[in-house]
Automatic annotation (TrEMBL):
GO terms for molecular function: DNA-binding transcription factor activity; sequence-specific DNA binding. GO terms for biological process: DNA-templated transcription. This is LysR family transcriptional regulator. PROSITE patterns: HTH_LYSR. InterPro entries: LysR-type_TF_proteobact-type, LysR_HTH_N, LysR_subst-bd, WH-like_DNA-bd_sf, WH_DNA-bd_sf. The keyword Electron transport does not apply. The keyword tRNA processing does not apply. It comes from the Bacteria. It comes from Sphingomonas glacialis. Keywords: DNA-binding, Transcription, Transcription regulation. Belongs to the LysR transcriptional regulatory family. Gene3D superfamilies: 3.40.190.290, Winged helix-like DNA-binding domain superfamily/Winged helix DNA-binding domain (1.10.10.10).
Amino acid sequence: MIDWDDVRYFLAVARGGSVRAAARGLAVNHATVLRRISHLEERLGAQMFEKLPAGYRLTSAGEDVLELATQMEISSHQLETRVLGRDQSVRGLLRVTLTPILATHLLMPDFADFARLYPDIEMEILSSGELANLTNREADVAIRVVYDRSTLPLNLHGLKGPEVFGGVYVSRDRLAEWQSGASEPLRWIVIANHGVPDWANEGAVRTTGVPFKVTDAAAEIAAVRQGLGIAALPCFVGDADPDLRRVPGANLHKYGTLWILTQGETRKTKRVRLFTEFVSKRVAAYGHRLVGQ
């Protein structure tokens, strides 16, 4: 009989392209991954991977196994969510995935209120640049800004929230300097690999062609506050900050629509239903802030 754990390790190497990447993703050591792959190869009587200088490549036998292993994974997740969907207790773990800026600048007070209402629910807020995957049960609820609804996976169920707009912002002091006649141009502050958005009309303020680059939104906002230049930010961030002002004449731009997403049987659990209903009401009340009114 094939051990499902061996299959999980096989999938991790196939997707990561190396034993090291698989070990990192599974939070185990290098030797454990090798042992599991060796055990699967012994059970099947075939070599799954060819070791190359650039990493691990599937053999023809490995490619055959990959398709069946993926089906096993899907069945495993369906089994897990089906059983979980029967859990109607108001306790247990609730994992929510969203971007850091949504967590820290908009929804954390609401998460705190929900946690106080239901102290037996263990909340885990997964706020990072990489959103957890609902289909793989990495999270129970996802809160995302989606520009095109058709890009959402068909297996996800969503509660539609307000639209989200962004604008161009500068520090209050730098704007006052410019309005008093200062002619020094301002830098664009951008997150590395993003660049200046095409929609961001710089308005009446002159800018230089030399950007100031950061790696995350928190640093970007801090740099604007320090008067280093201007940046495109969500309206719910820029308008709420007393140290920031919109750049005169700059455009607003629609980022997308806020969605609260769940998957499969998981959405039927009582704690997930309570949370999505609670947060959707709070989000609806933020409509004017999200569109920049």
